[in-house]
Design goal:
By secondary structure, the protein is an alpha+beta fold. It is built from 1 helix and 11 strands; from the N terminus they run αβββββββββββ. It has one domain: Lipocalin (Beta Barrel), CATH 2.40.128. The chain is about 20% helix and about 50% strand. The protein has a 6-stranded antiparallel β-sheet, with no helix packed on it. A 5-stranded antiparallel β-sheet has the order 2-1-11-10-9. The longest helix has 28 residues. The radius of gyration is 20 Å and the shape is globular. This is Lipoprotein LpqH.
Length: about 140
């Protein structure tokens, strides 16, 4: 009986470790940082990545209708960001490059199914619109299955 208890104890202890490792891997595979800090109020569990119709779309749920992120990239060997929008401290920031109008910047690196998007998003300071544009450096890491 002691042997079977040890076996069940071993398998029971390895199962939670395996599932917690999986859970922590999943949670740590998504990251949204602005100016080097986690985007406050964003639940990383709501960040999704979907490949469809030649595009890669990254989106998140918003907390309290405020913080959130949305990215559309080309589904190519080296993806490019077509558009990125994020809400940071109530300010809408963007990266886009359409019809000759370039706003902000973004670079994508790929490692298997993991995508890292880094750059600088630009937008108006809604608390002080006359102050001009604000820029925030960001890093987004997601896994697309």
């Amino acid at each position: 009986m002691a042997c079977s208890e040890n076996q069940s104890h071993t398998s029971a202890s390895s199962s939670p470790a395996a599932s917690s490792a999986t859970a922590s891997t999943a949670a740590s595979s998504n990251e949204v940082k602005v100016d080097g800090a986690d985007l406050a109020g964003l639940d990383l569990n709501t960040v999704t990545c979907v490949k469809s119709a030649g595009k890669i779309t990254v989106a998140s749920g918003a907390v309290g209708g405020q913080q959130g992120i949305g990215i559309v990239m080309t589904d190519a060997a080296t993806p490019t960001v077509e558009s990125l929008g994020m809400v940071v401290d109530g300010n809408s920031l963007a990266v886009s490059d359409s019809m000759g109008m370039k706003v902000g910047s973004a670079v994508v690196s790929v490692d298997g199914n993991s995508y890292t998007i880094t750059g600088e998003a630009t937008g108006a300071d809604m608390k002080n619109p006359m102050a001009g544009m604000i820029n925030k450096k960001f890093t987004v890491k997601v896994t697309c299955n």
